[in-house]
Amino acid sequence: MSPTNYDGLMYKVPADSLAYSLLKNGIVSSSSKDGTDHRSIDILCEPVEAEILLEAATELCPKAAYEIKDSIIRGPKMNATDAHVIRNILVQMLVNARTLEPTDSLDPEQVENLKTLYKDLATYLHDS
């Protein structure tokens, strides 16, 4: 989604909605076309979640709705840009793992297991 349409929808969707949560987790990606940089916001979600975004956008930001509908029609495709987006998400998870601490929902052993998993994932990403 273009940054303009993303921002337009983001500021109109209620902060306590699922649509807002999905948008908030959008990833900025950049690519070059004809020597010019092109930025977009990628929102990785399940088809049912995409429909929720489409419903909200149809009401609040028709230009964003057009882009969401186009993405739904095209369906998920794995290309170099998608792989880059997924890699960025995983890198962000790794960064967040550095500060992971036990909470009410994660005991110390689970935290250590997650950190080990993230370290293994980082090694895999580095080697691939």
Instruction: Give the ordered list of helices and strands.
Output: HHEEHHHH
Secondary-structure content class: mainly alpha
What is the strand content? 5-15%
Q: Give the total of beta strands.
A: 2
Distance between the termini: 28 Å
Mean pLDDT: 82
Helix content: 55-70%
Main beta-sheet strand count, sense and barrel state: 2 strands, antiparallel
Question: Which value, in Å, is the CA radius of gyration?
Answer: 17 Å
Number of domains: 2
The total of helices stands at 6
Large-scale geometry: globular
Strand order of the largest sheet: 1-2
Given as residue ranges, the uncertain stretches (5+ residues, pLDDT < 50) are: none
Architecture overview:
This protein has 128 residues and is mostly helical. The protein has 2 domains: 3-74, no CATH class; 80-127. 62% of the residues lie in helices and 11% in strands. The protein has helices at 3-10, 18-24, 47-60, 62-74, 80-97, 108-127, and strands at residues 27-33, 36-42. It has a two-stranded antiparallel ribbon. A hairpin with a 2-residue loop joins strand 1 (27-33) and strand 2 (36-42). Helix 2 crosses helix 3 (47-60), helix 3 (47-60) packs antiparallel against helix 4 (62-74) and helix 5 runs antiparallel to helix 6.
